[in-house]
Amino acid sequence: GVRDDAATALARVKSSRLAYDISAIDLRTELESMDSIGQVEVQREAAEGTDGYKWFVTFLTNVGPQKSFFIDTEGLVGTNPAGFLQTKIVEGIEPDNFSRVRVSDPLMTSANLTGLDTGVDYYVRVRANSDRDQSSLATSTPPLHAAPGQVPGSPLAPRVKAVNADTLLVTYEETAEPNGGPVSHYVIETAISPRFDGATVVSVTQALDHKIQRITLAAHSLPAEPSSSSTFTLSLGDFHGDYLSSIGSSTLVRIQQGSSVAERVAGTDSLSAAVPRGDYVRIGQNEYRVCMREEDDDLPYDASNLPLCSVDDALSAVSYDGPPVNQAPVFVLDTSLGSAKQPRLHDSTINTINSAGAPNDVSAHLVRGDLIRVGHEIFRVSTNPAKVFDAETVPLATVSDASVDASLSFHALQDSTYEVQSITIVAKESSVSLTASSDVNSGFRLRFGEEVTQTTTAGGAKGCLSWDGDASSVKAELETLLGIDAVEVVKEDVEFQAGITGAGVRYRVTFTGDNVRGNVGTLQVIDIGENGCLDANSSVGGKFSQDMEPIIVVQESMSFIPLYRAQTTEDIPFDASALDVQSAIENLSLACKVDVKRTVNGNGSSWDVTFVEQRDTTALLPMSVNGESMEALIDPAISIIGLQEVHAASIAPGIPHYVRIAAVNSFGPGAFAASNPASVEPSVQTPGALKSLYAEPISNTEIMVQWDPPEEDGGSHITHYKVEYDTSSSFNSGVNNAALGFITISSSDTRGISDVQFVTVKMKASPSQKYLSGTFSLSFEGQTTRQLPHDASAEMVEDALLQLCTASSGVSVSRHLHCSEDDWENCMNPEGYTWMVTFQEVGDNNYKLSSSLGSDRHSHKLKIDGTHLQECTDFHRTTCAPSVIGTGDATFLAASKQETQQIVTGSSDFTVTIAGQTSELISTDESLLALEAKLGAIKGVGLVEVDCSACVDGAIAPGDTIDVTFLSMRGDVPPASVSDPGASVSEIIKGLAQPVVGKSTYWTILSGLTTLNEWHIRVQAYNAVGGGVLERTWPETIQTYIMPPTEPERISMSRGSDEASVIVAWDAPVSNGGNPLQSFIIQYDTSPSFTSKSGDVLGQAATDEDEADASVGEVLIAYPSDPDLALRRRMVLSDADLVALGVIHVGSELLVGGQELTVTATNEDGCGAGCLTVDSEYTGSQTSGMKIYLGFDARQYSYEITGLTPGVDYFVRVAAVGPSDLTGPFAFGGYPLSPLSISPVDVPLEVENVELTTLSSSSLRVDFSPPIGVNAKGSSGSPIVGYVVEVTLDGDSSFDNVVHTTTISDMESEVQAIELNAESPVEGFFELSFEEADETIIISSNELAQDFRTKLQSLPSVGDVEVMRQENDSGYGHTWLVTFMSNQGDLPLMLHDGESDLSGSAVSLTVEEVVKGQSLALYEVISELENGEDYIARVAAVNAAAGAGPWKMSSSPALTTSPPDELDVDVSTLSDSEISVDIEVAEDQPDVDKYRVEWTNEASFGTREVVRIRIDTRA
Fold it and tell me: Within its chain, how far is the Cα of 312 from the centroid?
């Protein structure tokens, strides 16, 4: 070649000459002194079968594949110099996106790294090189990292509009590019200058709160087929879902005081197979994590036991100190997917095997593209079809792109359980003992992966451990390895096994560090007594390497990691309605309540999802979408972005305002984007859109429309609402292309009604008495309460409901025992409770809007789940078993029932017609799913559930019996009909609406419609500016049809004809449903929940419509349109006797056609005996047939309920019935507010035995006895509170000239205190009786005052009482103060059966009299009468409810005269057996009939006898 005078000669870097047996340490030193080698680890072993050696070189700092060594063997001598071989055992792998740069100038101390991906974290390390060596890598903990980035990009232009004169609404999509730093918030600036200068700029910030999220589906083409199965799913939350399901319905556990273990006490489900270590559980009212440590024998983890740790730390065991948990279900998260076995760092698949070794098949819960959390890290299930996804394998992909593989990182494995390995070193022979290192040292090294111990010299050269050293030395040496950051080591002695092996040691190594989680690979024991490690066999008498069993390393505990899925919707169709998306999202418990609006965008759609209510405990996170099942001819795509609506205050009225926004990240604010339009002038606007606008038919000619006011009134008070209706969706069928009809509703006409629902748990009547136990839960709009005790108090239920985000607007709850007045034994026998739940917010809380998406949406939203109720054979609840749903004695139900009708198919295809709407043709071999869909597609029907127990292969056949349950329609459903004459339909369960169905703030009824048309309705709010948004009702088209009647109106109750009856009166329903009313159902009960008779209503009566008619007559003829004013104020009765008999007379107040009229004349101008003149013109449209009712407050119907128990409070409700037994909802006294009660009472009966006795010339005494039949309730149903006594002269039998009247009312109510005291929490019960010891009630240690009263009043010897419960000063136990309102006088103390059934420390139970009762006096002394006159008296009893009863006259008159004066008496002795008594009589002494002489030996004349005469007050 060409001569080069400046050529550079390069020499290969070489080590110095190396000895053929160079040690590992020396070779490491030589290699690390060579440039570019970096740090290495060297291990030397003897070559098997030769006298050579092997060196293992691991490159510790050089990353990725390394060039092979060039080996110069010229200096070797021997028989096989060519035997020097070099083999790559493990080829280095560079990490993702690895690169390096050399900085040649040692004065430079910084370097710029370019060409990086924005926003991606890059980890950096640096080392220095010199001619002698290189430094260690400069790293940190956590590792140094940074992400390249800058300020965010500019967002899209925000939309802005005026809300009112004071506020602007700024709407924008959160679309700004983050540019390497997550956008934290947006800045919204408002100014009156387009330059945004000066002091007029107002700036507000808005964080990314995810309250509104926009789902956008886009494609370059429509789906290939109109019936395309193109779908997507939405996921929400942080993978920590809700405790909605338990480990089997019959599997129960207990937790003892001070314990850390839940022990299975019932059921057969394996606890450990159901819940992996580290997973979350809820038992009782507490949340735990299953402990992750395995080596603690005191915390067993198996089929029967779960070790419980803190919910915040799965390594810290809890010590339970709450109330006893004896039989409780174990609830698991609905997002839990069990566990994966032996997860390994960098694995891109996980093995779904549970701790029992069985497949943990998650493919039933996940599809490709779904999110899955493995430990701490989130992935998607890979959509790569080449990756296996089955019952035991889940392929992992990145969250951003499910087609890109992802692998487990250190972060993911932080939730995996610890792997435990044991190393066992024992002698071969049981008669041999290995030499202790303290006598003759022996050692070995440990290898972990490619690393070998190299620090300690306890067992010889570097890295050699003493074979029987302590655990801490093994721990310390292992933690010197780069791959192990932390372990725990336990050493134990191993005893010899006779005839098998000798003694030795075992080290148990638990891998606890962050770098050694998951499946870590097996430890290897090497260099046993060689390669520098000492060997006792080399010494005389020493025993080690030649005398030991092969060392065994066993994986004692393999690692598992819990798996979680996100709460995910069912498949949502590509063309889903806003209601469908709303229903699907609200079916996720973490979503709470959402509002969805849908718009069509080209070949796709957008759904704006607003999270209206949010759970307090859950931060709202952005939804995630899985569009793997989207289909289109070209480029289907779906995405979710944040949307914001910000209210910005105006700066000054009457001038344009300019708005701009900018995104902000950690680098600062990005570029601003100006609004569209460029400026807006704040001003008063028309009202916004109405809320909850809904319409439903209530008859074949009527539609009810209801709505709530808009959120925005435009800055001006809403004056009225306009409701338009038309047969055309264009609303132009009327005059001048206007709507066919409209009505106007004033904004002051607010008539909202709140929902009321009852829920019940009860025990069925059974020959062998059973008792309730266990728990239940309530659900409302997709949210579920915690488990509640079977006898939860009203306050407990109310608190649980208020914690639900869907019920946060408020509820009130009252609890009612199941007690009947038929027999005292019926009180809580069988046991039962009903809770009455009243929602404070007005509106219909039923599922009015039906969608095929969202499971289990019955018409009523408040539901009860009693899966975990139990049946007990003793009151102490010590022997209990889960109650089997459907067949068990413990039952649960809501007051509303879903209608079920039964279809028996014929031999021909058929259609089904319901309420005038007909289904598609149904074949006789239709699948059940298709049948369900066709029935649900009938207009107005909504969701149905089809059940056919005899159907084969999921399809119907001729002659099959099919039960159809209507889930969306509430109340009684019109009977269905089928077109096949050979088929039949019957009603199996009559639907029943909830006790009060709410109505929105505004509602009205459109009348005069026809069934021939579909009706369109829209409503608009008006203010001073004009009409606001025209809002269409849902559903958009409504067809009228025959319906059940609505509830009766204006229920009133009054006293009946005697003490055992009440009269209930009511007006006709607002709508009869489209047919004349046939009858009414009247129900009565002692409980406002109408469940006192073991969960059923106490009594029921029925009356035909004409029998209940309360009108007094009808109008024969009226003249509403006559030009003569006089005639317009006249009407002729159909029955003139009403006037002749005085039923109707001048001054009578009449109700005619709802109009109030007063009679001013009869037969005026000779118009006839039945002719009435009234004070106003009759305004009705009818000329005859109108019914007449007496009194302006009269009701149209009435019915007397007889045979009731006097003095008992009764609640009454009435329902109207139309043709085909179509029954409407009930209305009760007080409807729709709190139920009102009435007691059947009458005035007291006549008193007995009225007697007059002369006391003096001016006074008499009247004695009498109470009425016959006075009992615990008093007389005629009410306590006697007094007696009226009147006196007159004999001969005045009509008592026209009463000379004296007095009322006796000096009584005192008895008050007794039942005091339960203890020095610790007290549990259990006691029995209580009154007068009759064989009739007892059971009182729990924490009995509520209301329930104590109910139970006490159930005793036949107890009347009305008031009960107040007080907390004791000790803080434990209660005192109940019982005031007897009906039982009079000094009463005997109530009796209890002792404290044997009460548990606690120093329990005492006493009954004391607090106030002694005092009965009414049964006599009266009448003074200041005339001397020498004969008088007569009469007495009447007075009760609290009805007043004075009939008079009872004295049996004979009495004369007022003075009694004889006191006598002067002298006594003298006559003989040894006689004395003389001499009486001196005064001259003015009144006539004396006789004298009575008494004598005795005692000066005191003995002790006076006192006799108490008691009147038995029982019937």
Answer: 24
